Amino acid sequence: IVLIGFLCSGKSTTGKVLSQKLSLTFFDLDHFLEQKLGPIPAFIEQFGVAAFREREYRLLIDTMPAEGAIISTGAGTIMPMRSRKLLAAFLPQVYFLDAPFQVLYDRMAALPPHLCRRPDFLVAPKESSRLVMLDEYRRRRPLYQRFGITIDATRSSLDVAENIANIVCEH
Question: Disulfide: which of 11, 47, 134, 148 matches 94 by Cβ 3.0-4.6 Å?
Answer without folding.
Answer: 148
